[in-house]
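About this split. The held-out portion is used to measure sequence recovery: a designer receives only the structure tokens and must propose an amino acid at every position. Recovery is the fraction of positions where the proposal matches the reference. Here is one held-out target exactly as it appears in the evaluation file.
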């Protein structure tokens, strides 16, 4: 299984409405990805990239 990596890079998106200004990029392959807290809660805090299958998580914003 691939190592879980924190999401640190985001792609700025404009023109998609007020609620979405940036989307997370997979720390493994760099493709646009997504992060759902529901899926992360089911998996113990991480989610899987739909492109490469890499595991990623949102770092705590402490």
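Reference sequence for scoring:
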């Amino acid at each position: 299984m691939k190592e879980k990596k924190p999401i640190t890079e985001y792609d700025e998106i404009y023109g998609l409405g007020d609620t979405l200004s940036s989307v997370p990029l997979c720390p493994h392959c760099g493709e646009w990805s997504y992060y759902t807290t529901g899926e992360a809660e089911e998996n113990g805090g991480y989610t899987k990239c739909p492109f490469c299958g890499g595991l990623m998580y949102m770092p705590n914003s402490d």
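Annotator remark: The mean pLDDT is 84.
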